[in-house]
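For homework, think about our next protein:
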Amino acid sequence: MKTFLIIVLFLFIHDISYAQKPRARDIGIPFEGTPGKFNAITDVKGVEVGYSTIISGEGKNIRGNGPVRTGVTAILPRGKNNNPVYANWYTLNGNGEMTGTTWLTESGFLEGPVMITNTNSVGTVRDAVLKWYVKKGWYHEDFWYTYPVVAETYDGFLNDIYGFHVKETNAFEALDSAKSGFIKEGNVGGGTGMMCLGFKGGSGSSSRIIKIKDSIYTLGVFVQSNFGRKRNLIIAGVPVGKELIDTLNNEFKAPPSYQAGDGSIIVVVATDAPVLPHQLKRIVQRVSLGIGQVGGQGTNGSGDIFIAFSTANPTAFQRTNFTKVETLPNDEINPLFEATIQATEEAIINAMVAAETMEGINGNKSYALPHKLVIDVLKKYNRVK
């Protein structure tokens, strides 16, 4: 019994220590806008996020054995309730994958979770989602089709990506563990083995509270960040990447086809504002501007793919019945554009601040963003005191 209590206490303390890991605002980085309670996509009521993180092995890569640095992320728009939401998507540069987007555009609805993993695991995760639907009773013979949305970024510099370590059980774990409230960032879920703008990247989130006329709305963003050149890194308007160009450079041997800046970023935008699919298209396009704020350029080898959904209008999805929906006027949509740009920028930096130095296959290493040095640079440019 004593041993059991010690183990429980250790796990509790470990979880608290992770929860208290500093985020970008905690270390003094300034941002525009007002975040929600958790400053995360889960500030949008009903949205849940779950992870499966796979870390094992070290040293030389032996295909099929590792080292493994990968995972799966699940974002559920209405939690574990089967009720489709209005949605749309956009791509800045299409060297990547997000399944299910053809029907998403055609129908205007996202009919399940958004899953994010590594490049070579999209098929496995897609099939697992279908099995999860059946397991949950979401789909049966009366519903003869569905197209899961699964996106990816490439983690092959740190992970044994051709070892195919993501299994359907990992997708199930991400889905079943999804929750609201505080969510972990950095080296977790699909973002485990990712790198960003010259440092360690991964999973990150942020949110904004906005007022439109007499109504208060929330908009949240989640990123799996794995893109960009170090020399282009901008934080709070400051060229941090150029200032730190010779500091803690990633150590890995890239293939001949690799060009600096190649990578990808997947962005999920959620809001409770009553917007229709064509308006969500307009909103999700603004993600590109948030990526540009931190130095992303949508290079040829980057898969920059984004999806946005609205949890408003809970009766919108009908198969045979007519329904009525509420719609925000286009003339009132600008605050949502601004919130998307702000939250995207902060989510990317949150991912980098939370990420820890990681060594992967063949000794390849990606270094964490050096918090103190970043603040010193911001002070140099009078962005912080």
